[in-house]
Amino acid sequence: MVLAVFLSTLLITLLGVAYVKGYDYVKQRSPEHLVHFYLIMAAIRMLLIGTTAAVVIILTDDKAEARQFALCIIILYVLMLATTLTLRH
Fold it and tell me: 88 partner at 20 to 30 Å CA-CA among 26, 34, 45, 52?
């Protein structure tokens, strides 16, 4: 479980950094496409987080641990959204 939480935190961090760097790049090169960038990144983030949660839940035998992991990744996702929106908006 510790490994899953570490990897999930790493994934969330990488997604946050990709959003911030991508936002800066799009804003500098083509600011009119910021809305498209945000929507594409939102879809990518939701797919990756959902897939990660699903894979860990499927591979975990303990259902209580799976629920704890799902709650942990949802909390991390919300924190990442709040942080990236605070940094760039």
Answer: 52
* CA distances (Å), origin 17, targets 54, 65, 80: 23, 28, 10
First to last CA, the chain: 34
Amino acid sitting at position 3: L
pTM (predicted TM-score) = 0.76
Instruction: Give the C-alpha distances (Å, rounded to integers) separating 18 from 1, 44, 59.
Output: 26, 11, 28
Tens of pLDDT along the chain (89 residues)?
Answer: 777 778 888 888 898 899 889 999 999 999 999 999 989 998 998 899 888 888 888 888 888 888 888 888 888 888 888 887 787 66
